[in-house]
Amino acid sequence: MTLPRKLWLMFMLPGLPLMAGGGLDAVPAAKPPAYKALRFDEDYSHLAKADRQRAGDLFDTVNYIPLMTGNPAWYLSIGGEVRERFEGAANPGFGLRGDYNTYWLQRLVFSTDWHLGDRARVYAAGISGLAQGGSLSAPPTQDDPVDLLFAFAEFTPWRGADGESVVLRVGRFGMSLGAGRLVATRASPNIPLRFDGFEALFNSRDWQATLFLTKPVTERTNGFDNYDDHITFWGAYVTRWFDATRKNGVD
Length: 251
Description:
This protein has one helix at residues 60-63, and strands spanning 5-13, 65-66, 74-90, 100-116, 120-133, 144-159, 165-173, 195-203, 207-218, 226-227, 233-241, 249-250. It is built from one helix and twelve strands; from the N terminus they run βαβββββββββββ.
């Protein structure tokens, strides 16, 4: 039996957020946070007091743009992603067909993250996914020239003294629960998986919980991607962490 072979060649710039400096306390820069699969989960508020001359990341100057003098909780982050990928597949039909398919994939993302004080936040991101070449027509998850990736509003009604918080989110967002076996971002195709709906997020040192009521978004190659009116996805996901690094826990 002839086995399939696939060649992947990928070039990716993980993030391009944007900013202007101004009037901040000069203290040593904190270690920049790691880029995350869901970019809206990144927190750049530590840059409010970072020394711009000793910034810890090339894009620190675009991750934090002050919006209000004297109130560092008001800021803007501008970000993006450029991903170029070539794929070639030989014998994808396990020898039943003697075909060979090659194509080029491109993903472009541009995002704005508006922090309106300690309690409110608005996030929006657009996306362009293009597929060039190939012997077969590209599916909508690969070929969608212009569309809305994420757009949601957040409100934080409660913060505890030890870092606990309750966050309410409504709009279009992505979800990645646990190890992502059942619900993940679908990072491999050009267009990630998204949901329209509501989330309630609780976070503390030892506990993390997500309550959600959503409808999955259906991709269209041309036209606005809308949610699937025939499917409602809802539930709760709870994690108990056993260590401060959040590497060991039970879901």
